[in-house]
Known about the structure:
Distance between the termini: 100 Å
Largest sheet: 6 strands, mixed
Radius of gyration: 24 Å
Amino acid sequence: MSGIKKEKFFRVVKEDVKSIRERDPAARSNIEVFFLYAGLHAVIWYRIAHRFYQRKHYFIARWISQHARHRTGIEIHPGATIGKGLFIDHGSGVVIGETAEIGDNCTIYHGVTLGGTGKDVGKRHPTLLNNVMVGAGAKILGPLTIGNNVRVAAGSVVLEDLPDNCTAVGIPAKVVRKDGQKVVESLDQIHVCDPISEELAALYTHYQEIAHELEDMRTHSSLNDSQL
């Protein structure tokens, strides 16, 4: 790497460390983040592998990415495009596909997959714009676009594009909040709406109404029989 490119590389790494310090309350120092955070290590190895991939040294790039996977438990294909400030928290089981694109200041938790559906060619993996948070175990599949400031709740499966400034929950994921406060300021994966629970509650209410109507019909029928 030339001197300028080295400076750019280390500047990006410094920004990655800074973003982790800002978003992780458990991070006590830059030294701790740099030496002990597997998510940061995976991103650093990715940035090195990505340089070789851009120069079409595919074998070396994949060797580096596989080495990083064994060391960190995080698999990032060297062909992916990742902006600055990516925070992979905990990280075990994270998979990021070859044509995935991730913008600036995104947060990804353990068990997340940015994968393909198996039927697409060319661009096969998702695009995450800026300030996206993807909760633990969530799956985003196919050449989708996830808008700016989007939150994907833990365990969700996203199969369609998501607009800016929204929260998506469920399997398949549904938008349950849009154009609220900036979600990048909150990484809360707990206090989000659950559309499935809401639908079940509505069905239960409807069931109670039918049960009451049937009881009224039985009571009315019994009164008529007694009058006869």
